[in-house]
Amino acid sequence: MPREAEESVTRSRQRIVTGLVFLVVSAGAALGQASGQETDAILAADAAWLKVYQAKDLAKSVAFCDEQGSMLAPNAPIAVGKDAIAKLIEEDFAHDNIEWHANKVGVSRSGDLGYTSGTTGMSFKDASGKIVVYKGKYLTVWRKQVNGEWKVLYDMFNSDMPPL
Predict the structure, then answer these.
(1) What is the pLDDT along the chain (164 residues), one digit of tens a residue?
(2) What is the torsion angle, in degrees rounded to the nearest 10, for the CA atoms of residue 158, residue 160, residue 163 and residue 164?
(3) 3-state secondary structure of 74
(4) pTM for the complete prediction?
(5) Among 3.40.50.620, 1.10.443.10, 3.40.630.10, 3.10.450.50, what is the CATH number of 3-159?
(6) DSSP secondary-structure letter at 163?
């Protein structure tokens, strides 16, 4: 891919990320100190999703996603819907030591949307066989279901590592 095209794709992705961050920040007035029960429920869902993700259980990992969910992974098109998300997660399972830790959580005043954000990491082997330790950050937007469960509506993550 020509350098100009790569830069255009990178700028487009940065705009998407900026838009999602703006969405969460601009909703800050609505994303206040919600009830402790709701934030606890979102943190519990986040931790449960990590547990099945680390076990590399594809069906259970995808089940945490909303029917209209999307995943925005680095260097990949936006995965929309459970089938596309399943393919992306399956690719992610090739990595080792996948982890994330929420350090922020919030719930909208309406109580139907929430978020977690924090740090993420994993390890993998590069083309030369050298183990690379990846560190980054994530933002997950959760939607409360009719039955009270929280499901992933949007999941976005990116690297803290310098560009290759």
Answers:
(1) 555 555 555 555 556 645 554 455 444 434 444 478 999 999 999 999 999 999 999 999 999 999 999 999 988 999 999 999 999 999 989 888 899 999 999 999 999 999 999 999 988 888 888 888 889 999 999 999 999 999 999 999 998 887 76
(2) -90
(3) coil
(4) 0.76
(5) 3.10.450.50
(6) P
